[in-house]
Amino acid sequence: MTETWIILGATSSIARAFIRQEAANGSGFLLCGRDMDDIAATAADARLRGAPMAEAMAFDARQPDTFAPILDRAASLSGAVSVAVFVGSMPEQAAIDADPAMIAGVVTDSFTGPAQFLTAIAPMMETRGAGRVVGVGSVAGDRGRLGNYVYGASKAGFATYLSGLRNRLGRSGVHVMTVKPGPVDTAMTWGGPKQPLSTTPEVVARDIARGLAKRRNVIYTAGIWRLVMAVVRAIPEPIFKKMTF
Ligand SMILES: NC(=O)c1ccc[n+]([C@@H]2O[C@H](COP(=O)([O-])OP(=O)(O)OC[C@H]3O[C@@H](n4cnc5c(N)ncnc54)[C@H](OP(=O)(O)O)[C@@H]3O)[C@@H](O)[C@H]2O)c1
């Protein structure tokens, strides 16, 4: 059966790696995001790599009126329609501390915008009884810490949302997978200090494909982060609250 991936956040470095990989496997795409020139170039590249269709569509997590045209186009497609969410924003925590009004935007980009879109498309996926959802969260959502707790809170909210969506859509045969990357070498982390145990967008894309093939519910990528976060979550709060990482 033909599978068409709706990619939310198609300019993301991780999304690009995923698109290159899945295009070679013959998937089609609705590539959605804000920078239409950039996305048009990615669409052309995907078609060259083997995608039977790749269309660029406008999507802004902060503007819900951009959602309906994507939902309408998805409804017109035959076969399985899947959704992969790569949208997210991570301003410096210090900037948010200085301007609390920024919190609404961070939460909308990383959680409520994508959740609103997924909730709107869920009935179509249930009716078709096919398709997959990939939601990219972060290890930052596993425990709030000094350096990025608003971003982390957004990712925690998104992970909890995905858990519930998995519970709902699994009844119709739709697989929902939560992806928790550790640090990845992308635009989001460029210019910052070199992070330990960091990985590349290509490794994350490969791990997503492997997780989907095994119908995993939650994956960490690189895989070592599952162990690291088990240790981090086990640190008693009286000690954790004094740590400065
Ligand atoms: N890099 C890491 O270390 C790391 C670690 C864990 C999790 N993640 C997560 O991985 C995902 C992909 O990030 P990345 O590392 O590939 O970084 P990235 O290249 O900066 O990608 C972020 C994506 O989010 C999009 N976006 C932000 N706000 C948006 C909005 N309001 N509406 C629509 N799109 C919006 C960006 O679009 P524009 O190009 O239009 O800005 C871009 O496509 C994110 O969810 C991120 O939180 C990354």
Mean pLDDT: 96
The CATH architecture assignment turns out to be 3-Layer(aba) Sandwich
Low-confidence stretches: none
Return the structural class: alpha/beta
Major sheet: arrangement of strands: 3-2-1-4-5-6-7
| Largest sheet report | 7 strands, parallel
Enumerate the distinct ligands: NADP nicotinamide-adenine-dinucleotide phosphate
Order of helices and strands: EHEHEHEHHEHEHEHH
Q: Count up the helices.
A: 9
CATH topology name = Rossmann fold
Residue share in helix = 40-55%
The CATH homologous superfamily corresponds to NAD(P)-binding Rossmann-like Domain
Radius of gyration: 18 Å
Shape: globular
How many DSSP E strands?
A: 7
Beta-strand fraction estimate: 15-25%
Whole-number tally of structural domains: 1
**CATH class call:** Alpha Beta
Distance between the termini: 47 Å
List the helices and strands and how they pair.
Blueprint (H helix, E strand, L loop, with lengths): L2 E6 L4 H12 L3 E6 L2 H14 L4 E5 L8 H9 L4 E6 L7 H6 L3 H27 L3 E5 L12 H21 L5 E7 L19 H13 L4 E4 L2 H11 L2 H4 L5
Parallel strand pairs: 1-2, 1-4, 2-3, 4-5, 5-6, 6-7
Helix pairs in contact: 1-2, 1-7, 5-6
The structure holds NADP nicotinamide-adenine-dinucleotide phosphate.
